[in-house]
Design brief:
single chain, five-stranded antiparallel beta sheet, rod-shaped
Length: 134
Amino acid sequence: DNGNGTGVIRIAPALTDATGGRVTVNVTDQGGLTASTSFNVTVQRTVMINNAPFDTAGKQLFISGVGFGTSGARVTINGQDVSSRISGQSDNSITVKGNRKKLNLKPGPNQIIVIAGGVTSNTFILNLLKGSDE
């Protein structure tokens, strides 16, 4: 209550809430009068890749970011789905195992996308030099 007939309501759904829901606000003034209103809140989930280095020696891609969830994410590299090669996943990291060829990584720019909970991430560009494991 701002003391002038206005106020602020902050709604903070859990990070795991991917849908939102109906919210009802009940207000009572100092005189005991009440009012009520309801509305729907839609949660806009964020999926973002911050970095994605490829470990040539270990033959794995480490994707770091936010909003990946703990299971079920999909990863595409240059338009090819490589999700079957995911060996580990947390809400902020995904490990994808395989050499460059198996992961569809090519010399030059590579487009990496994560899809989690139906939300598509930004396109992360990984620039690779010609490697020995192609």
